[in-house]
Amino acid sequence: MAYNYEVTVPFLLDWFDYNARILPWRENPKPYYVWISEIMLQQTRVEAVKGYFDRFIEALPDVEALAKVDEERLLKLWEGLGYYNRVRNMQKAAIKIMEEYRGEIPADYKKLLDLPGIGTYTAGAVASIAYQIPVPAVDGNVLRVTKRMACSFDDITKDSVKKELWQELYDIMPQDRPGDFNQSLMELGATVCLPNGKPLCDKCPVMHLCKAFKEDKIMQIPVKPVKKERRIEERTILLIEYQDKFTLHKRLERGLLAGLWELPSLDARLRPGETAERLKEMGVELAEITPLGEAKHIFSHVEWHMVGYHVRAGRLDLSRMEEKKFILAGKDEIDEKYSIPNAFSSYIKQIP
């Protein structure tokens, strides 16, 4: 028997009225603000996003500014949030909005879905929060909350499960407050019906309607398949200094960290002597090499185990370096211009 989510609506809305966190994009829910915040919040916690959101909006206050900004500047504004394809798709979407909708984000769920980088969740969030269009926004928080309410052991990673829930919520969506209803589910999942550890059931406004709570199965739901183990990659990271500047390398336009600047790296964990030999092959005449310690960075399916070295170069074969997409940049340029992925942060912060 399907769960009747409609009975939860008044309790969730009343709870949201008194417990919603104060967030910049909520205080002023312009379509542009809602869109930017929702893309930023994918894979990133709310508290971490606040500062990035303010900085981004100050630099790019509207769709036109986003459409026109230089990619290097755009990536720098996004630095630290990761998953850089998100912001590249945002710019593609902004260009399409300028060309097809005169700079106005369309107040239409299907047209939102047609924009680059916008799926059913983001389209639902923008449509309901910014335009009060009664469509669901089903993300991980919403799936967890609703499946616990229903005591459902459906695999929440399956598209069929997400589509079924979308339709169930669409059918009971409050016509007068769709944005608040969607946000109440998201907020409950983020602050009470927690993803990790024991949820705060005593603070839940629908505890009395939650089947998983009544049957003591909260910790068994939601159901997901066991994740595959991440592939471990050993790397040697090089902070190469030459004439008070540092070497950066442009990654290929495909694959992991596509098209981003990085510190030069070698596909193995090398000792200082081995590193010196590889540097010679790269056209780097070594003056001094100093260990910078070990670091680890976790991607979705890959885990980098790194060792780093500060390399002072006596001479660089610049022609060979440029041919392989290397540049020299001062510390100020790295701080202000070039976007370096978080994977290298342990070594970037050691730039003298």
Q: What is the string of SSEs from the N terminus onward?
A: HHHHHHHHHHHHHEEEEHEEHEHH
Domain tally: 2
Percent range for β-strand residues:
15-25%
CATH topology call of the largest domain: Endonuclease III, domain 1
How many helix segments? Answer: 17
Q: Globular, elongated, flat, extended or rod-shaped: what is the shape? A: elongated
Return Rg in Å.
24 Å
Question: What is the total tally of β strands?
Answer: 7
Please summarize the sheet with the most strands. Answer: 7 strands, mixed
Structural class: alpha+beta
Portion of residues in helices?
40-55%
On the 0 to 100 scale, the average pLDDT is: 94
Q: Stretches where pLDDT falls below 50 for ≥5 residues?
A: none
Judging by the overall fold, what is the CATH architecture of the largest domain?
Orthogonal Bundle
- Please identify which CATH superfamily of the largest domain we are dealing with: Hypothetical protein, domain 2
CATH top level of the largest domain is: Mainly Alpha
